[in-house]
Amino acid sequence: MNLPAVTIASVKNTAANHPATIDIPSTPESRLLLLTAIWSYSRNPVGGKLTVVGGPTPVEFDITDQGPGHMDLSFYVCDAGKNLIVTLASGGPNVIGKLNLAYSTRRY
Q1: Mean pLDDT across the stretch 17-45?
Q2: Cα–Cα distance for residue pair 60/69, rounded to 1 Å
Q3: Which of 5, 58, 68, 78 satisfies CB 3.0 to 4.6 Å to 53 for a cystine?
Q4: Is residue 1 pLDDT above 50, yes or no?
């Protein structure tokens, strides 16, 4: 079986009360497939949220504890040529967030 290569992206917001965002560029002849998101907050967040944009419909998930947490997002396929943008919302004052993604690129 010939499986597509998986790439890992990681970001840590370096200051409390700031979102952690990963923006993965695409090309006109490719689609990005989000496989998994893994996150954590340094303490329980206030208003924690994971947002995914790039496909026909943005998706959003509330996060209520510090984690680590993970979510299978293999259903999320970006439109051709659209960047994959995943944001872990600010967890509130004195809270630092970390976000990791596994994704794949399909060329057409």
Answers
A1: 92
A2: 15
A3: 58
A4: no
Place of tokens 């990681």: 10
94: left (phi over 0), alpha (psi -120 to 50) or beta: left
Q: Which fold has domain 8-107?
A: Jelly Rolls (2.60.120)
DSSP the chain: --PPP-EEEEEE-SSTT--EEEEE---TTEEEEEEEEEEEESS--SSEEEEEESSSS-EEEEE-S---EEEEEEEEEPPTTPPEEEEE----TT--EEEEEEEEEEE-
List Cα–Cα distances, 26 to 55, 78, 95, in angstroms: 12, 9, 31
CA distance 37 to 99: 7
Every domain of the chain and the residues it spans: 8-107
User: Residue 102 has which token pair?
Assistant: 């596994």
